[in-house]
Amino acid sequence: MQAVLKYQDGICFEASTESGHTVVIDGPLQSGGKNQGPRPMELVLLALGSCSGVDIALMLQKMRVQLDDFSIHLDGTRREREPKVYEHIMLQYRLHSPDLSEAQAKRAVHLSVEKYCSVSEMLRATVNLSVQVFLNDQLLEEF
Question: Which domains are assigned to the chain?
């Protein structure tokens, strides 16, 4: 897998992926950016959420579960000193389905976070990951 970042100006880069997609990465005005795209550390959160989300969506499709709505809310806390790495990330999985059981919801999230998601596996070595699973707005589990 390969990616290329091409400098634009200020602290802005255009990133291109091997699969042919591009994203603009920039910083806030106070850091010399123009706020034209997400920050690198925001992309880390997005990578974690999307990696896990894809796993879960695929599992639920295989279960033939009707999924009316699915969102993942991430809240990252970074340390104060440089480098300001994530110390803790809370993931909230919010699933809405008329036919998804509590056991299926919990199992899908556990399998993703603990077994299949490559990004969570990389981060787990240095970041405390906390998870909440909601089904139809009811909190099922925290781990």
Answer: 1-38 (2.20.25), 40-142 (3.30.300.20)
